[in-house]
Structures are given as structure tokens and as C-alpha cells.
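Protocol step 6 of 9: fold each sequence in the batch and record its C-alpha cells directly after the sequence line. For illustration, a two-sequence batch is reproduced in full.

Sequence one:
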Amino acid sequence: MAEFGPNGAAIGSGDPVSDRDYALTDEKPKIRRVLLACFLCGICASISVALIAAITAFVFSSATSAFGMPAAEFGERSNFMSGAFMAVMMAGFNWVVFYIVIPVTWVMLFFSIGLFPRRGILRHAPYYRWGAIWGALLVGAPTGIFGVAAENQGAFLGALLTGLAIGCAAGLLCASLFLAIVRPKQQLSLPAADVF
């Protein structure tokens, strides 16, 4: 029973204080569908790189034929456009080496954006940022390495920058697919049911 002091102010309660803590615990909730998202994003990465390269090749060849410009040539006149064309062709045949590309992408996704929900990252910007960075590195590095074989700085820059752009676009697609599957904001902000 509550005890009252002068002017009717309550000063205390005769009831013992409960040791039970009703506050939320620091235990993080279990995040679901991360492995499924990494698995599907790895496959999506390989397919999206090939599709983006195919669309780019179609637009490039349509533009050169519409404006009467010479197509990119490999040989003595290697330049920026020939390096870019080489990167587009390499990215277009990305599915040929899927047995290397997909497992590497799975590992990269799991150890980068796959760990973000566990760390409590709710904003979408880090997922998109790191998806774009890793996509650009995974596509831009091989195209840049093969661009070195052209022995021309213009061709190297064309291959590297085109590979970076294709990989960045594919990484953004993979990050959006990951967020659509995992939905970290909804999973981490589910209200906890308190039982009194």
C-alpha cells in the first residue's frame, strides 16, 4: 500500500520492488533470408552483367551505324572506344565462366552486405554503396587487366572505365534485390511484445 506524506504527496510504497526487468534486451533479433538473398543475388549478378553488356553493345552498334561512324577496331588503331568495346564483349560473355564468377560473388556478398543486417544497418544507402563498389571491382578488374594487353593507354582506360560502369550498375541491381528479399528495416524494427 502506498504511504502518503504531508499535503497528500505519495512518498513510497510498501510493496517490494520487482527484480524483473521489462526493458528491451540488447539481444539482436535473428535475421532471416540472408543466405537466400546472397544466393539469388550471386546468380542475378552474373545475368545482369551479361544483360547490361548486351544492351550496351546493341546501343553502341546502333549508334555507330546510325551516325556512320567506324566500329571499334582491334589492331593498330586501338583507342578508348576499342577498349570499351572489348570490355562490353568480355562482360557479355560473363555467363561462360559462371562457375568462377558466381561462387566469388556469393562469398563477396555474404561477407559484405550480407553482414549488414546483423550489424543493425537499416539505411539503404550502405547496401547500394557497397553493392556498387564490389560490382565495379569484380567486373572492372578483369576488364582492366585485359585492357593492359592492348598496350595502349586509351584502350586500357576504355576497358577499365566501361567495366567499372557495367559492374556498378549490376551491383546496384543486386543490392536492390538483396534489400527486397531481406528487408532489414522491417525485420529489425518489429515491435517486441512485452508481457506484464
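Sequence two, same batch, same settings:
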Amino acid sequence: MQSKNNKQDWENVLNSEMWELDVFEKTLSPALLLSYYDLPPPLKRCFSYCAVFPKDHTIQIDDLIKLWMAQSYLDSKSDGEMETIVREYFENLAARSFFQDFEKDDKGNIVRCKMHDIVHDFAQFLTNNECLIVEDDCENLKTNLSLQKGRHATVIVHGSTRFSFSVNKARNLHTLLVVSDNGCKIDSFPLDSFQQLKYLRAMDLRGNDSIVELPREVGEFIHLRYLNLSRCRALKTLPETICGLCNLQTLDVRLCLGLRKLPQGMGNLVNLRHFLFTYYEEFSEQINLAKGVGRLTSLRTLPFFIVSDECKIEDMRNLKELRGRLEIRGLVNVKDAEKAEKAELKNKKHLHGLTLHFTTGRMQERMKKVAKALQPHPNLKSLSIVQYQVREWPRWMMEPSLLQLTHLLLSHIACQCLPPLGELPLLENLNIQYMPRVKYVGGEFLGSSSAIAFPRLKHLGFSEMQEWEIWEVKEEGRKVMPSLLSLKISASPKLATLPDLLQTLLQK
């Protein structure tokens, strides 16, 4: 009703014949049907699709958005970023109370939610058995499904069991989700029988420890757009045939501990928008991005870019649509600054988080030039610089160029002084770790061009500053850190006292 702006619209709802329908007398509310029919067609499809989730299931919003995209539920006339449009679909449905029990991140965005049982029953009613939920238990319960009509299926596995789901009648499935109840283990999964599922658009096999490798026949799933293999810890390889999935939008191999190598033809996945994997700091042998990653011009999500002999820093040039957070590692392998400049980080306006992870080495002059060439776009909101073993900051750190920055981490830095971070107008969180050459912090830290130094800074932390002896803060007629809420200093044994101004602020 919140979208109804005049008396006539309200009266139309009041006088609707739907209030008289007998089918709702005992089971469902006619108000739900009225709300449903008030939705535009794309939102109707998105809502009814949610019947594929079990009751009381915690829905991950990012996954839901990618699943809706895989089913091509967007309005064909829509202009703009696909993920943004589908996110608006979800927020519209959430505003109409089709979802509940929202969990939000620190920015207020909904990241998880549930559906009320009554709403779930209504969604199931609307799908007319197109969305199926199958219980498979330790007794190898045989599934009795009318899958000729079924389009979307979720299989719930209880306990440690051999998977008994038959796909003989499931040839028309568009979605297959496998849910391990309470993290239970699936001992055996019949991937060899999946050749018949030629119409699959989304397949989620996460948490399946029985999968060591995918059959090469997966390359025949030409309609597949969403493939989630996260937490398949025994998975060692992906078949080269997977690179023939030209419609694939999402590939998720996070927490696949055994996966060390990617197919060489990854560059052929021209419609891939989200490639999710995990980098393990403690492992000497890591996943290296395959040659040709620079051809993935549709990529929106890439958590790590690891520079290697096969994957050059200049391959980032064409990844213009990258969004979210990106960590660049292996910068020691960048041969010269010209190649680093070709990455065009300063043009990647959609990135909001960036980590530059340098590697300890003796090539200081080269790393200095490389760091200068890796200047981020001014829109950046979060920045981490790690293992920067050069004694001078890149010029873009000494100038107030990152005016949108809210979070900054400096860790294991060889510079002898701090940059003028007080001139960053939106900086809220600043964490400085292990800068063994810093002995004095003074006016250079506050900067000199702004009337208020650190106007938005709320949380400030220093740790492992072993040689730090003196910290001076001189107001000189301007405010300093007026928004500060917390200050944490640890493992800095030579720092004897805090500036009087900070002591006064923290006592308020």
C-alpha cells in the first residue's frame, strides 16, 4: 500500500474480488496475493523462485542475486548494471515484507534474510511444483518427484550419506542446489549421471567433500550461468572443457583447499562476471591466474590478482568493470613501472577497496616507480598497503588525492615518516602497523592545508612501532581529530607519553 498515492488506488484494493477467493480460506492470505499481483513481472518471477529454498533457510543475498541473474529474470528493457537492477528487485520485495529476519553489514546493506513459513507456502503455491525440495537421508530415500514439471530443485542431505538423488526424470531442471543440513558430509555424489541435465542454468554443489574433479561432460552444460563449488575441499582440478561454458556468469571456488591449478582456457569465459577464489597466506603453492585473464572484460568480482609469469600486471588494463575489493599480490614480479602503469588502476572507478601487497626485496628503486604507477582512482574508499619496503612514499600518498577514503591500513612499511593523512576529509579508520624506521610523529602527519586535521577520524590504532619515541600534536589554531572515539597503541615500548590534546579528547 505504500506505493498507492491516491484514494482510488486504495479503494481498488479494498474492493478487489481476491478477498473472496475460497482457496485462501484455510491456508493462505488474500493480502499476499494482492501484494503479489501488484508486482511487475520480473519481481513476480524473482519472488516465486524463492520457493526453491527450504523453509527457515538463511538466504545469502549475493547468492540470491546471482541465481536470479542466472535465470534471466531481468526486464529486457532495463538499462544499467545487471547486479544493481537485481539488487533493487530484492530491496523492493523486502520493502513489501516478502522477506524478514534481515542481517546487515556495517554499511547497513542487507546480506542475509529469511522467508516466513506462510510466505514460503505462498511462493510454493505459485510455482505449482516447479520448485521442488527433496529430502535425502541416510536410508537412501528414493525421490518420488514429478520432475517432468520441475524446473528448480533443492536436495537436502541429512547426516553422512551416499547421495541417492535420481536424475532420470530431471532432464528439464534449470536449477540444482544441494544443501548439507548443518554442514553434514556427502560421501558420494553421482556426477557421472549429470550428463542429462543439459538445461541447467545454476548448479550449487558447495561443501561436497566427495568431489575430486568434475567430469569433462560439464562442458556440455552450455546454458550454465552459475556454478558454485565453494568448500569442496577435495577438489583438485577443473576440466579444460569448463572453458567452453560461454554463458557462465559466476564461478565460485572459495575454500577449495586442494585446488592449485586453473584451466588454461579461462580467457574464453567472456561472460564471466564473478570469479571467486581464496588466497592462502600459509601455502607456498597457490592458485595462479591463468594466461588470458585479461580477456575477461565482463569481470565485476575478482578478489585477488596475482602477478606471475603467465598473468602480467598489464593484463588488468581491460578489466575496467571490476567492483568491490581487489588485492594485488606478486608485485615483486612486475618488471618495470611502464607495465604497472598499463594496469590503469587510476581508471578503475568502480573499485571501492584495494590492497597493494608488495614483497620484501632489495629492488627499492624499481618498487618505488611501480608503486607510483599504481595510483588508485580517487573514488577508492578502503586502501591497504602491505610490505612496502621503500623509504619514500609514492607521490599520491603525499598529496590529498584519495578524498573518498574512509579506511586505511599501513602494515610493514619501511618509510621513515608518516604521510599527511590528516588532510583526508572522510577518513574514519586508520591502522598503522610495524613501521620500524619511524621515531617521530608530528605536524607532517596532520598535514597543513585543511582547517581541521582528521575531521572524521573515529578509530586510530598503532602497533609494533618499536622505535617510535615522540608524538607531537600542535593545534596551531585548528581542530585536530574532533570525532575521535578510540585510540589503541600496542607494542610501542619507547613511546613515553601521549600529546596533551589527545589525552583531553579521550577523557571526554
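Proceed to step 7 once all outputs are recorded. Observation for sequence two: The longest strand covers residues 351-357.
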